[in-house]
Every structure is written in structure tokens, then in C-alpha cells.
């Protein structure tokens, strides 16, 4: 729920009971005043009745109004003072009950006591109630309508900078950072928010850049020590008296150095792709690239006796950095060869905007959604670095290319939609 | 043959010097930009190996300076920054080759020899080892005057062996030479074995001695006496 709506609901929740209380209070206040007025009138009329009684020559019954609700009657009893009561009388003309305020009193004149009853309808009171209810209802209704309009206006105008900030935050891309991401507004709170966000994103961005630089620099710095180890190994194996056993150890060291160097190179490549350092895009003919890559792998394909089915229906021209296109295709093909059986099958096809590479191979040992994760690799592929598909993924991410993996009837399939 | 090595890492400098001495080169070295710059001003070299990131300057400026001096020296960049940009800039400035660290000494040796071969104008452009004659320009091999039909990989393998003759060369070094970056992606040792078997067979058919010694555990040595 919107903050403005929430605020207004709270306002409504407080103001409606307050209005009802105010209504109740005014009702009792006005009712009291009215009653006082009625009682005054009743008292005046009973005084008039007393004057009438004084003018009597002999005792008699007198009706003071047409429906005989007020009358003077001779009686034997006598009580002092005025007695006010409320009563309801059925009005035969209007066919409804009506409330009356009644004054009962006794008066003695010429040695005869008379009972005086004066009745007065309290119709005005009912009307007052109605009036009050309708006016308060109107006020509440009006308030709700005003609140809704206010809500809409507030979120349109007052909260506009906030929504702008929210949009900017949603669209924030750390790779396309600029230092004044969030503009100044005329509202202090939003200014503070934007200021804090600017500071925060600037900090995040500089950390991000520094970390990327670190990855790249660290990998670069490692190349020279690796070169030293490699060079010394080359010299060491020239010694005439090394036994086979020792040569095996040296080979193990050399293999490890080679792997470390390859790892380093792959990490530098990943950092470069993610740092957007491959900027020059040209129109690349992927069909041609595929054909050359397949022929580059001819030796492995022959030795593993893998059958390669090519079905390249069009050139699939793509605007991409040519070096990255090479890496993308090489890594996908390598993956299809490495995880293949001897005498296996690789199917490569281009249809429309899609490049589909599928290969036979054992089922995955890792979860499908971890396929593109760095250093996640199948136990069987000891020589693999576990970075090939991560590199593929970072290239496709860079160009907003969609890549999917499916596994169907023994075939692992990667579909790249350019 | 005089070679200048401009490299700031002392250990690497020492190893490269030692290996190249063994190949019969005179190797001088400089540890930083200033010393390197002085040396190229004062002396003539046949080949200069230069690192790009140097203390007190860039190896690229060394190349500029060489070109301004109209130096005839061949230039090979050895850099830890295997970036396409540096490579392109270096080659544009007039460097002849680019080798990314970490490299194999045998590979460096083969690049130096190829460079010197390309730059030699004495007409003697074939490599002769006993009965084997290689004409690099034609990529052809003759044994006792008779041409051997080798595949590209077999030819490269033979040339690499001969370039680094009497050296123990590991299978990894051979793989990196033959397949470059792709070598770590496949079971390259098996491929070397296959290519070597075919090469030996083809050479033996023409009456060539088998010079390739297997050094168990690590690789091969193309052993030529004398």
C-alpha cells in the first residue's frame, strides 16, 4: 500500500471517531437546549392554564388542543410542583408514533384542585437528529473524497522526486555509473535520501572498480613469477643425471604451472570481459567462424573418433567483438568435445537467429543452474579449469544474448539466441 | 649473435641468459628502462628482448627509440600483459614478435631463431643438420636430397626439435608450441605421440637416423652429436 494512502487511512481512522464524538456531543448539547425551550413553553402554557382556571365560575373539564393531549381536569388529589415526563403517542393521522414532552401539575383555585397536563411534540428533536446525522455523514463523505483527491495529488507532486529516485535506483547499472545519479530536489528528506544514495553508489562503484582492477592486476603480477618457475624448470630438466622418477615429479610441477598459467589467463579474460574492455564490435559471420573452429579441432575430433554433423543454414551475421566471438564458439565446441564419449556425436546447427550445439555425453554431475558458475566442474574432467562456460556466460551477458542448456535423451544441448 | 635482454625480474633474466648462452648467443641484460635505453644507444645488437612494464619507463618507448635510431635489431616483446592492444601497439611500433609470460625458454629460443633467420640476408636460408635440410621459406624438408612430405604439424615439430637440438624439451612445451592457447584444452600429449610416430616413420623411410630420444617422464631430446 502506498505511504500516502496509509497516512490518509490513519487520518480517516482518527477523524471519523472524532467526528462521531463531536456529532454526539453537539446532539446532546442541542437536545438539552431544545428541551429547555420546550419545558419553558410547557411552563408558560401551564401558567396560562392557571389563568384559565382562575377565570372558572364552576369546576369543569377543558381541552386545550384539538387532539385532547393537553387538558385541565378537576381532581381530588393534590401534589405540589411540576412533573415532566416523556411519552409516545400514536398519531392516527400520520399513522406513526410521535414523541411528546408532557408537563403534569396541579393547581388549586376557588377551593377546587385541578390537574393540568400540557403535551408538546418533540418533533423538532427528531428532525435535529436527522439533520445532524445527514450533515455529519456529508462531512465524512466529503472528507473521504477530499482524502482520495489529496492522496492522488500528493503522490503526483510531493512524492514525485521519490518515485524518480526509485526509478533511477531500479535502473542503476554499476557498469554505467555516473557520479550524480540522483538529482537534487526541493524536499529536504528526499535531498538527504538522494545524497546518501549518491554517496553509497559512488562508494560501491569505486569498490567495484578497485576489485576488478585488483583481479586483473593480481593475475598480471602472477605471470612473471610463473615465467620464472617455468624458465627454471626448462633449465633444470637439461641436467644429465635426472632419474625417471624425478623427471615424473618435474613433469607434475610443470603440468601444475601450466594449469596455473591457464587459470590466470582465464581469470584475466573474465575480468576483461566484465570490465568491458572488448569494445570494437564488427559484423562477424558466425558460420565461417564455426567452420574454422571445427577444423581447428580436427585432430581431437579424429582421435576421439567423434562424428560432427554440421547443419549451417545461414551465415548468422552478428555484431560482436571478433575475439570474443572466437572465444564463445571455441569454448562451446571445446565443451562439446571434452565432455563427449569416444565415438560420440556433436551436432551443430544454425537456424534463424539460433546457434545450437549438442553433444553426447554422461549426465551432468552438477546442478543445471550451476553449469555457468565459476570453478564448478564435473569430477571426470580433471584437466578442465571450470571456467570455460563462465566465460561463455559473461560474453553472452555482455551482449544480452540468451543462452539455454537442455538435456534430452542423452544429448546435452546449448542454444544461443543471437 | 648479440642479444640484449631488458627485463626487471632478476631470476627470469638469469634463466633466459643461461639458456641463450647455451645456444651460443652473447647475451647482455638491462634491469630497467634507463639502462636499457643507454645500452641501445651505445651498442648494436642483433636481437632485443624487451619487457613492456619496466621500472622507470615503458618497453614500448624502447622500441620507439630503436626505430628512431634506425636500428636493424630484431625486437621481441616479452610481456606479462597478454593484451591484444599492447600486442598491436608493439607490433605497429615495429616489434617483430610478441611473447606472453609465462613462456617456455625453448619457445623463446625458437622465436629468436626464426626472427634471425627472417632477417638474415646472407642467402643461407636453409637449416642443415647432418642429412636433414630444412628450407623454412618453403616449409620443406629434404633427407639426402629427397623431399619428405610432412604435414604442417609434423613440419613444425621437426623444426622445433632442430631449433632446440640437444635440449630436453617437455611435452608441455611442444604442445604449447604446436597448438598455442588451445594446448591446455585437449589431451595434447597423446597428439604429440601420434605426430612424432608419423614423423619418425616418414624420416626413417628416407633413410634418416632417429635423432629423437625419449626422456622418460618429461619429453624428448633431439640429440645431434657435435
Structural class category of chain B: alpha/beta
Mean pLDDT figure of chain B: 89
Stretches with pLDDT under 50, minimum 5 residues of chain A: none
* CATH architectural label of the largest domain in chain B: 3-Layer(aba) Sandwich
Number of strands of chain B: 14
Oligomer: heterodimer
Largest interface: A-B, 44 and 42 residues
Largest sheet descriptor of chain A: 5 strands, antiparallel
* CATH fold node name of the largest domain in chain B: Rossmann fold
Approximate shape of chain A? rod-shaped
Shape of chain B: globular
Number of helices of chain B: 8
Query: H/E series of chain B, N to C?
Result: EHEHEEEHEHEHEEEEHEHHEE
How many domains would you count in the coordinates of chain B? 2
Total helical segments of chain A: 9
Q: How would a crystallographer describe the biggest sheet of chain B? A: 5 strands, parallel
Rounded radius of gyration of chain A (Å): 49 Å
Model description:
The complex is a heterodimer of chains A (418) and B (226). Chain A has helices at residues 3-54, 123-156, 160-170, 188-236, 244-274, 286-296, 298-303, 322-338, 388-398; strands at residues 62-63, 71-75, 82-91, 96-109, 112-121, 282-285, 307-312, 317-320, 345-351, 354-360, 402-408, 411-417. With 418 residues, chain A is α+β, with helices and mostly antiparallel strands. In chain A, the strands form three sheets. Chain A has a five-stranded antiparallel β-sheet with strand order 1-2-5-4-3, covered by helices on one side. The two termini of chain A are 40 Å apart. In chain B, the strands form four sheets. In chain B, strands 2-1-3-6-7 form a five-stranded parallel β-sheet, sandwiched between helices. Chain B has a four-stranded antiparallel β-sheet with strand order 8-9-10-11, covered by helices on one side. The longest helix of chain B is centred in the last third of the chain and has 18 residues, at 188-205.
Amino acid at each position: 500500500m502506498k505511504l500516502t494512502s496509509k497516512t490518509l487511512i490513519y487520518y480517516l481512522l482518527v477523524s471519523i471517531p472524532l467526528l462521531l464524538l463531536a456529532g454526539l456531543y453537539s446532539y446532546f448539547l442541542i437536545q438539552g437546549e431544545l428541551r429547555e425551550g420546550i419545558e419553558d413553553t410547557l411552563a408558560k402554557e401551564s401558567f396560562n392554564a392557571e389563568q384559565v382556571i382562575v377565570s372558572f365560575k364552576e369546576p369543569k373539564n377543558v381541552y386545550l388542543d384539538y387532539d385532547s393531549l393537553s387538558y385541565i381536569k378537576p381532581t381530588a388529589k393534590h401534589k405540589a410542583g411540576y412533573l415532566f415526563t416523556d411519552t409516545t403517542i400514536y398519531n392516527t393521522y400520520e399513522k406513526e408514533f410521535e414523541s411528546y414532552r408532557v408537563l403534569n401539575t396541579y393547581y388549586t383555585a376557588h377551593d377546587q384542585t385541578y390537574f393540568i397536563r400540557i403535551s408538546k411534540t418533540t418533533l423538532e428533536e427528531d428532525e435535529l437528529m436527522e439533520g445532524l446525522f445527514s450533515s455529519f455523514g456529508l462531512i465524512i463523505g466529503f472528507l473521504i473524497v477530499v482524502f482520495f483527491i489529496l492522496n492522488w495529488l500528493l503522490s503526483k507532486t510531493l512524492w514525485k522526486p521519490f518515485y524518480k529516485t526509485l526509478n533511477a535506483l531500479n535502473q542503476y547499472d554499476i557498469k554505467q555509473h555516473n557520479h550524480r545519479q540522483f538529482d537534487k530536489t526541493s524536499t529536504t528528506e528526499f535531498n538527504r535520501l538522494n545524497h546518501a544514495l549518491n554517496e553509497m553508489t559512488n562508494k560501491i562503484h569505486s569498490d567495484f572498480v578497485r576489485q576488478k582492477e585488483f583481479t586483473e592486476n593480481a593475475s598480471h603480477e602472477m605471470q612473471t613469477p610463473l615465467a620464472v618457475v617455468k624458465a627454471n624448470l626448462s633449465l633444470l630438466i637439461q641436467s644429465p643425471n635426472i632419474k625417471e622418477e624425478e623427471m615424473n615429479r618435474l613433469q607434475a610441477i610443470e603440468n601444475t604451472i601450466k594449469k596455473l598459467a591457464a587459470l590466470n589467463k582465464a581469470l584475466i579474460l573474465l575480468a576483461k570481459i566484465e570490465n568491458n574492455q572488448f569494445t570494437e564490435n564488427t559484423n562477424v559471420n558466425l558460420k565461417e567462424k564455426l567452420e574454422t573452429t571445427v577444423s581447428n579441432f580436427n585432430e581431437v575430433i579424429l582421435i576421439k573418433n567423434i562424428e560432427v554433423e554440421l547443419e549451417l543454414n545461414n551465415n548468422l551475421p552478428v555484431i560482436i567483438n571478433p575475439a570474443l566471438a572466437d572465444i564463445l564458439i571455441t569454448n562451446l565446441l571445446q565443451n562439446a568435445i571434452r565432455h563427449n564419449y569416444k565415438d560420440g556425436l556433436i551436432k551443430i546447427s544454425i537456424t534463424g537467429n539460433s546457434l545450437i550445439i549438442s553433444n553426447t555425453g554422461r549426465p551432468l554431475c552438477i546442478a543445471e543452474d550451476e553449469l555457468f558458475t565459476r570453478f564448478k566442474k564435473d569430477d571426470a574432467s580433471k584437466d578442465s579449469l571450470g571456467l570455460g562456460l563462465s566465460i561463455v556466460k559473461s560474453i553472452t551477458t555482455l551482449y544480452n544474448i540468451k543462452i539455454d542448456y537442455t538435456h534430452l535423451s542423452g544429448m546435452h544441448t546449448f542454444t544461443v539466441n543471437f | 649473435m648479440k642479444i640484449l635482454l631488458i627485463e626487471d625480474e632478476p631470476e627470469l633474466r638469469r634463466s633466459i641468459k643461461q639458456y641463450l648462452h647455451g645456444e651460443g648467443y652473447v647475451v647482455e641484460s638491462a634491469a630497467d628502462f634507463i639502462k636499457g635505453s643507454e645500452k641501445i644507444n651505445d651498442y648494436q645488437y642483433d636481437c632485443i628482448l624487451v619487457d613492456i612494464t619496466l621500472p622507470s619507463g615503458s618497453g614500448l618507448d624502447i622500441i620507439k627509440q630503436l626505430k628512431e635510431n634506425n636500428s636493424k635489431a630484431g625486437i621481441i616483446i616479452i610481456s606479462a600483459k597478454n593484451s591484444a592492444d599492447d600486442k598491436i601497439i608493439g607490433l605497429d611500433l615495429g616489434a617483430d614478435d610478441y611473447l606472453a609470460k609465462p613462456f617456455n625458454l625453448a619457445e623463446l629460443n625458437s622465436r629468436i631463431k626464426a626472427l634471425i633467420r627472417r632477417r638474415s640476408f646472407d642467402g643461407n636460408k636453409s637449416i642443415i643438420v647432418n642429412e636433414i635440410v630444412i628450407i623454412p621459406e618453403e616449409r620443406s624438408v629434404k633427407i639426402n636430397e629427397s623431399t619428405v612430405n610432412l604435414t604442417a604439424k609434423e613440419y613444425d615439430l621437426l623444426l622445433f626439435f632442430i631449433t632446440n637440438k640437444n635440449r630436453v624439451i617437455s611435452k608441455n612445451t611442444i604442445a604449447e608450441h604446436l597448438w598455442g592457447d588451445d594446448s591446455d584444452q585437449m589431451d595434447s600429449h597423446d597428439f604429440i605421440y601420434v605426430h612424432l610416430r608419423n614423423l619418425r616413420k616418414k624420416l626413417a623411410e628416407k633413410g634418416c637416423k632417429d635423432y629423437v630420444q625419449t626422456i622418460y617422464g618429461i619429453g624428448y631430446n633431439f640429440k645431434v652429436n657435435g
